[in-house]
Design a protein that fits this description.
Length: about 120
């Protein structure tokens, strides 16, 4: 339980920082691709993450395909982030609860951001 709390705390602080650096006012031009699950940034990241506080969350590495604006997590799915992450050195992962994808995260450099995307369903 303490480890989950620490994980949640470590996740929330950068998320709040990322939200403060949001690109507000940028038009949304995302179009879903067949076979790719659209994922969006939760309206309230803190509330979104709070629903998993009593769960065991597993993080698996993914590959961000900048040319396609897709996050490829192999057998765990392909995701189309809306809005797509921008910046250098983008690293993404999928978060699993009971072997079910619940969120995708991306960390970027220049600018430094931690982004969360909710997996619906």
């Amino acid at each position: 339980m303490a480890r989950q709390f620490v994980l949640l705390a470590l996740v929330l602080l950068p998320a709040l920082f990322a939200l403060a650096c949001d690109n507000a006012g940028v038009p949304n031009q995302f179009t879903p691709t067949p076979g790719v699950t659209p994922v969006t940034t939760p309206a309230n990241v803190r509330e979104f993450l709070a629903q998993f506080v009593d769960e065991t969350v597993i993080q698996e590495a993914c590959t961000y395909r900048e040319d396609l604006d897709q996050i490829d997590c192999g057998s765990l799915g392909r995701y189309g982030p809306n809005p797509p992450p921008t910046g250098e050195a983008i690293v993404c992962s999928v978060l699993l609860v009971e072997d079910r994808p619940v969120a995708v995260t991306c960390i970027t450099q220049k600018p430094h951001q931690l982004l969360y995307y909710a997996v619906e369903g």
